[in-house]
Structure formats: structure tokens, C-alpha cells
Write a structure and sequence with these properties.
The chain has 419 residues and is of the alpha+beta class. It has eleven helices and seven strands.
Amino acid sequence: MEINKYLKSNFFQKIIQPPKRTFNDYFEEARYVLSYRMCLFLSIALGSLFIILYIFYNEMYSILTFIGFLSVFISFFFIRLTGKYQTFALSFNIFAAVLCEFTLYAIKDQPHIVDGLWMVINILFAFMTVTKRWALIITVFHTLSLSFFFLTFYNEQIVLIKLLNEQQVIGNALNIIICFSVILFLCWQNINTTNYAQIQLNRTKEALQSQYNIINKQNIEKTAMVKEIHHRVKNNLQVIVSLLRLQSHELANEEAIEKFRDTTSRVLTMSLIHEKMYQTEELSKINIEEYFSSLARDLIHSYQIEFEVETTIECNIEKLGLKPIVPLALIINELFSNSLKYAFNFKDEAKIELKLNQIDTTYFELEYSDNGTWKEPKKEQSFGLSLIETLTEQLDGSMAFEFSPKTSYKFILKNTEDK
């Protein structure tokens, strides 16, 4: 007995539960389950209604009901085998709408007491399983059709209702019970499947939040580690600077000392980048204007300039990627160094202007000028100018300069940062 009970319960469980399918989201899965169960329940309801109508009413009613039962029964197996509930839901709702209207207008010798309830079922099912546009179309279609019917055939329907015999009254009562049972089942299943979808969605959100917390923690740890690396690189570069300065003290040749000083300033320029990197909140970018202001102050201090140098830095690029920042910084280092060394001899009002402007999403412009007096350098005698040209090529850019009426350089450079 227990084995038979288990087999029966297992059989009904397999029938009620649709086969597992993979869907894009949980609400689509809920509509699939709702369509499957509604199809199963309607098969039972329409089958029972067919028997009732066959006993209490004429053959036309029972034949139309049987057609509806057959279409739903076939759709049930179609959904179970393929999982394509959308095809069933749309075709069934359209077919049901047409069948309701055909029953309403084609059968003229019977009162249409429950047709409106079946239309309500059709509308509810449409809103739960198909697109809103189709559901609204079906709603408007039934509203206009039923309103026109009662405006046109109201008196005839009153007479037909009065002529109902006891068996037909019982048949209508059973039909109403079936209709409300379908409405109750439809609403109940909609609540259950929606709750199921919401529960699954919440579980997914919790899993994603947990993964986000883990990734965020790892990101914080990696950010701290990278900042520490930048800090150590900066310290190592400072050690190199100190060694270069100590080594330069042993030199007697002024030209050699000058070369050491230039190399020291270049290393300091890169050191300052790493210093800004571990000080900034966003590792991928640093504040350009702040960085070049610091670089200008350090260079003026490094070259021990005895007169005041007014520096003006304008930048409409708030952030710049990491790839172009090092060659750009070395270019500006060379320009500043050359101005401080060669342009301001006996100058009372020394001025340096630096402008960075964004041209488009790919290129930016660098304008550098001072009010000193230069002599145009020869390429083969100027390592600094050769370095500037090399760095400009590295940034896929171009350079133009002039020495009258004032010394100025203009660069068009490419932001090579990965997007």
C-alpha cells in the first residue's frame, strides 16, 4: 500500500512540475511554470466543462468546448516536450479570444451568462504570460465586443435567461464554479511563481554581493600592495639620486658635474611620479596640474636658482593615463631644465608658462614657453633636444618650436592609455 501511494504521489508530482529548463531570468522561468500549470489545469477544467455542457446544453456548446480542451491538451504536451511556452501562450490567448467571441455571437438560442468570466480568464492569462501590448489588445477587444453584445442583445438575453430549465441553471452554476476555480488557480499560481522568481533573484543578488565583497577586499589588498611598490620604487630612485649626488662631489670637471645634475633631475622626475602614485586614491590616474607644479618647484630648488621664477601652469585635462605620463614628464623636465640653465641669465622677471589642452579623445596639446633669450641649439650637440624628439615619437606626436619673439615649444601628443 505504501509503495502504491508513493508511486501515485510521484506520478502526480512529475505531471504537476514542468521539466527543468534554462532561461535568461527567473521571471521568464516563472512564466514558463505558470503557462505549463495553467495549461494542465485548463485541460482538466475544459474537459469537465465539456461533459457538463454535453449533458445540459446543445451540441454546439459542447463541440466548441471540446475544441478548446483539445487545443490546450496538445499545448500541454508541446510545452512539456519543448519548453517553448511563448508560442503556446500567444497562440492560446489569441485562439481563446476568437473562441470566446465566436461563442458569444454564433450561438444565439442560449443565454451567455458566463462568457464574460471566460474573457476575464483570457485577459488575466494574457497579462501573466505574453507581452503587455498583446494583453492590452485582447483586453480592448473583449471590452468592446462584450459591451456591444449587451447593448444589442440585452432584451433577448433576458428572455432566454427566464426560459432556462432547472438542469440548465445547474449547468450554468457549475460553469461559474469552474470559471472562478480557474481564476483562483491562475491568481494563486501567479503569486507562487512570482514569489519563486523573487526568491531566486534575491539568492542570486546575495551570491553576487558575496562575490563583490570578496573581489572588493582583494582589490583593496592589491591597491595597498601596488601603493607599497610605488613607495619602494620612489625610495629606491631617491637612493640612486643620492648616490649620483655623492659621486658628483668627486668630480672636478664642470661639464661632467652638469651631466650628473641633468641625470639626477631626470631620475627625480620619475621618482616624483611614483610618489604621486602612492599618494593618490585612484592608482590608474594622477592629478596632472598638481604633479607639474611639484615638478617645477623641485627643479627650481635642484638648480639652486638665485632669482625668482614665476611659473604659470594651465591644464584642462584633469586626469591623464599612466602610459603617457612618464615621457610627458621627461619632456617637461628637459624644457624646464634648459630654461633654468640657459634662458634666464641676469633676468629680473623670469617667467615660464605651461599649457595642457585636450584636443579630442585621442590627442592633447602641450604648449611651453619662457621669456628668456635662447640660441637655437644644434641637434648633434644637444642631448636634451634629442631626448625630447625621441619621447615625442614615443607618444606618436609632433613638435614645433621657435625662438622669436619668445622661446616656445608646441607639441601634439597622443594619449596612449588603454581604453
